[in-house]
Amino acid sequence: MEKILLIEDNAAICENVAEILELANYQVLTAANGKEGVSMALEHLPDLIVCDIMMPVLDGYGVLHMLHKNKALQTTPFIFLTAKTERTDVRKGMEMGADDYITKPFEGTELLSAIESRLKRCAEIKHNSATGIQGLNILLSASNGADHLSLLKEDRNTNHYKKKQSIYAAGNRPDYLYYLLHGKVKTYKRNDDGKELIIGLYNEGDFLGYNALLEGGNYQENAEAMEDTLLAVIPHQDFQRLISSNPEVLGKFIRLLSREMAEKEQQLIGLAYNSLRKKVAEALVMLDKKYNKTGSKNFSIDISRENLAAVAGVAKESLIRTLGDFRDERLIALKEGQIAALSIKKLTEMIN
Q1: Average pLDDT, the chain
Q2: Which region among 195-204, 266-275, 300-309 has the lowest average model confidence (pLDDT)?
Q3: Which of 88, 131, 231, 318 is packed most tightly, with the most Cβ within 10 A?
């Protein structure tokens, strides 16, 4: 049974909508204002959220903004339920990442149809976590872009990159959307002294290069293969045509961009205020989250000290000393160039 969170300050409307949803065999949670709604969403992780805009304490826009900061709720379908019908209001909600916008008064069948449609789309799009080229195909087919999907299948090529080979460089115009089939990729920037800071890590099943395509500008960072890598490449003309005709796919990439921006903000805060030990611990935890998808306790990763230092934003010499301390404290194991985190729990506690 799907779980729906209804956030509505009008008691009569809330009761009526909740009754409609329960009759349709949904489990319904209700909140009387935005602040209460955010708390309930974080606690219960609903499958879909229906939210009014004009509410006390925290309005619907604020609720959507807060929820999109939480990784577990970023892809949760979000429907605005409101009497505000101005085009600017609708546009604002959609630009913030809302999935639908239902105006009052409305028919119960209209709401149920929107909810059923969004839950179905969400279930389909979640399949894009599948690795390999099928992950991309599932995402595109979920967008109902059958004609574009056929075109992309015909035109798609794959490129092989050796370890340390450049994929694209800052300042260049974007030619492709990249989909990582095999290997690991980093994006990074260099300062005037040549010091490198890694700002993004990518694993199998990830897209990269979409920032510049969405902005219509040049690449702002460099991308390089961290090991032998296979990428599917989609010409930017096909990507632009796809997102222009398929709002669902455009929304997916906007959410990816929002999540990436939130991660970068957190990284900058850590670089500015964290201690050396905390920076290194945070880098190790991030690597575990990114590449240890199965949660294996025996996970290890082969990453150069230069790359790890660039992820943590510290000097290589300082990193080596800190890794030695962590090894002595039995937080990690170092063996033949690989790093194995023996206690992710303790490393996580260190950064919280």
Answers
A1: 84
A2: 266-275
A3: 231
